[in-house]
Amino acid sequence: MKISYRHPTLEDGSIIYDLIKSCPPLDLNSQYYYHIICHDFSKTCVVAEDDKKIIGFLSAYLKPEQADCLFVWQAAVATEARGRKVALNMLEWLTKQAKCTNVTNLETTISPANQASQNIFKRFAKQHNTNCQTSTFLKASHFDYNSHEDEILYKISPLNFKTN
Asked: What pTM was computed for the model?
């Protein structure tokens, strides 16, 4: 079956919560959080469906003080859908939507152990023939009991989605 992409709805919140829960090492937020994201930030988020089953979710938002910057918060793909470029395709689909017309910068943070996510964002930058710069954003010491790896900030720019 062909994978389809769409913005999430409020009703998707619990399903997305379960998807994130099944995708360690992603940080699991509360169900309430996922409902709010699906409601208030729907236009900067995307779900991937295969045969009407949600197999992927990408949450993002436009930075309040930098409206031309899309910050990708989380990207999750169900185990059975990995290797099908679902995360990259969600990102590509999202950046073609009206809400992202003025986006010229994309940012995300990725832990050093998450090689799959690193590859997705590097591939995205390469496909858009642009730069991908990295720097440490949060150190492990910022988290309780050093229970978390560093978070590396990926900055991809310049982007021009108006002509994509």
From this structure: 0.89
